[in-house]
Specification:
The protein is mainly α. The protein is built from 10 helices and 2 strands.
Length: 162
């Protein structure tokens, strides 16, 4: 049987995934100068400006073709980010101690969540918090305590403690 170069390469890549990955990471650094990288960056930026509608249509068609995969990916990302945010701010309600993650929410400690959402123009609070490095002024509450705080100004658990 003759030697099959492609089969050999395939097997090598399977056995040495990390080594190949590290080599590929450094490829652009080894091959392109800073001047070439900057020239390429400017070209891509100009291409994006010149072909905005074409790119938009291509993205729309890709989304339609891969909708199920894209939605699953987005859901997994959202779940992962939410988990990281809850791990930072706490995995239990600060008021009643509820720890079922599906019942938890992130609360603005001083209120004003709606105004904050309008001002900052964010859609998903967890992603906003993650991208900004978990700023101060937020806490974990369960949905019941969060709603009660909004509707009545104080949670019944806190009122009972006073």
């Amino acid at each position: 049987m003759p030697f099959d170069e492609k089969e050999y390469q395939r097997e090598y890549r399977k056995k040495n995934k990390e080594k190949v990955r590290e080599y590929n990471k450094g490829y652009r650094k080894r091959v392109f100068t800073d001047e070439q990288k900057e020239k390429r960056r400017l070209y891509v930026k100009q291409y994006d400006i010149d072909n905005k509608e074409r790119i938009k249509e291509r993205k729309r068609l890709y989304y339609l073709k891969n909708k199920i995969h894209m939605l699953a990916r987005q859901k997994a990302y959202t779940k992962r980010i939410s988990r990281l945010v809850f791990e930072h701010y706490g995995l239990v309600c600060k008021c009643c101690g509820e720890s079922t993650i599906e019942f938890l929410a992130i609360d603005h400690i001083n209120g004003g969540g709606r105004q904050h959402k309008i001002k900052e123009k964010w859609y998903h609070l967890h992603a906003w918090l993650y991208q900004r490095g978990y700023p101060e002024g937020y806490q974990t509450l369960c949905h019941n305590c969060n709603f009660s705080k909004w509707a009545h100004g104080i949670c019944p658990h806190q009122r009972d403690k006073q």
